[in-house]
């Protein structure tokens, strides 16, 4: 379970970096909003998995 959480966190960090360094907000707003939605979904998934992992 820890491995899955680590992979999701890596993916989240990658997307956040891509959003910041690629200046997606300026270049492609549609792609940036899609990226932000994916980040939010990953955050929710990580939160749920961490809660289940504790019990």
Structural summary, described in words:
The chain has 55 residues and is mainly α. It has one domain. 91% of the residues lie in helices and 0% in strands. The chain contains three helices and no strands. The longest helix is centred in the C-terminal third of the chain and has 26 residues, at 29-54. The mean pLDDT is 92.
Chain oligomer state:
single chain
What integer value in Å does the Rg equal? 13 Å
| Number of alpha- plus pi-helical segments | 3
- Counted up, domains total 1
Helix content: over 70%
Q: Uncertain spans, ≥5 residues at pLDDT below 50? A: none
How would you classify the helix and strand content by structural class? mainly alpha
The overall strand count is 0
What share of residues are in beta strands?
A: under 5%
Biggest pleated sheet: none
Tell me the series of helices and strands, N- to C-terminal. Answer: HHH
How would you state the average pLDDT, rounded? 92
Form type: elongated
Q: Could you give the distance between the termini? A: 12 Å
Feature tags:
single chain; 91% helix; mainly alpha; elongated; 55 residues
Task: Give the arrangement of secondary structure elements.
Blueprint: H1 2-21, H2 24-27, H3 29-54
Brief write-up:
This protein is mostly helical and about 55 residues long. Helices cover about 90% and strands about 0% of the residues.
């Amino acid at each position: 379970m820890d491995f899955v959480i680590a992979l999701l966190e890596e993916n989240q960090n990658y997307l956040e970096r891509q959003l910041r360094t690629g200046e997606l907000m300026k270049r492609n707003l549609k792609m940036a909003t899609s990226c932000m939605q994916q980040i939010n979904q990953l955050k929710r998934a990580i939160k749920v998995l961490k809660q289940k992992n504790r019990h």
